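Reference record:
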Amino acid sequence: MTNLVKSITVNWLKSDIIDVEVDINNGLPNFIIVWLPDQWVQESRERIKSALKSIWAKLPKWRIVINLAPADIRKTWPSFDLPMAVGILYKSDFIFDSTHIKNSVFIWELWLDWWVRKISSVLPATIWAKEKGYKRIFVPKENAKEASIIPWIDIIWVNNLKDLTMMLNGDKDLDIEPPIDFKSLQIDEINNFDFQYIVWQENAKRALEIAAAWGHNIIMNGPPGSWKTLLARTFSTILPDLDIDESIEVSKIYSISGMLDSENPIIFKRPFRTVHHTASWASIIGWGRNASPWEISLAHKWVLFLDEMLEFNKNILEVLRQPLEDGQITVNRVNASYTYPSKFILLWAMNPCPCGFLTDPDKECTCSNFQIQNYNAKLSGPLLDRIDMFIEVPRLDIEELDIKKWFDKNESSNKIKRRVEKARNLQKARLKEHSILTNSEMQSKLIKKYCCLDEEADTILARATTSMNLSSRSYFRILKLSRTIADLWGDDIITSTHILEALSYRKQ
């Protein structure tokens, strides 16, 4: 008679319950794992045999067959060590009580002795176990705090196979991780960036405030030394903190990537991901046979910053078209297709020409017309159509201004952040029934409903559409941008002032 233990396989954000069936018979010694185990899972045999030697000085000469069901799901996660070991111990009567095995899920990876090691993807596995109605999940101690984010399921942490055997037999109390206190995890980070200390660039700061309130894409164009990178790094200081649902959604991605901190396993802040122009397309959208998530997914709900934009390979820039439009990326591999969430604010900084000084008032550009044209040719029309705001960031002469006076005059990031939060709260209240959060996510039906223009604004937009030769996509993006500008002003109706400001951010 076989024995059944429950485990989970995590394949990106999709999880599946796996039935681990164990059968032990006398016969020629052998250890077989069947039904689509990959190389990681096949190697579990050696880890399990070494761990079981800590219980048996000499392993019995058994024929062990382990079946991982269902058959149509490839088992790609190396943490089936524990459920397979539990099945063997139960079948061989080292574990004689099945009370805690029933209605429980087991995920572990073993060292060669009987100790367990930290694994990735525990958070999505715990969410899936809870959704499927399981009462308990057994996890390594280092992952317990991460799993305890999810309520209404007991998180049982274990150090080694011996402790687990004692707990399952009732000789030791279950080590239940207490529910996490979210407030204790919210760390007040010291931030060295603040808009108060960026002087003069008021137009750029205003554009970044609108982008933060709206949640979409912006290009900053200017010569070297105009503080484009500093503006980008400071941008994260005016973004609202993630709410609990967003934190869990983002933390799941980082859990799968193995990038969560054991002590503070949930992400509340919105720093930004920055990509160097030497990066490959695989490192940006995902890599490997299983297409593990990378930069555009790690930037989900955050900011993706590409400095020196036109130094990137054109193919890499074109890869961003789908996530910019759909908020997700689909990657096709030989064995499967994977869809990742990638709803981020894209922040680009670029020079106007290869030498960088085309728009500089003091330094002469050394580039030919052909070089400039070839340099800017990387920006295709479809890609530009997906960018909402284009701003010029000029290099200013510091010697002409009193820096201390400007520091006192400038608004702090906290003050700007409060306005952004107020605008976002207006959008949340307005769009709550439609299951979206920001104006940037509105489709045509919602644009018609919520982007109400007065007569003068309607006339101005109609003329601009013709004179600027705007596409239908650009037209709707201007409407959504105008809606956000109106939200920052607290206005219900989009006026000519809002439309004119939105049009000022379009690339001519």
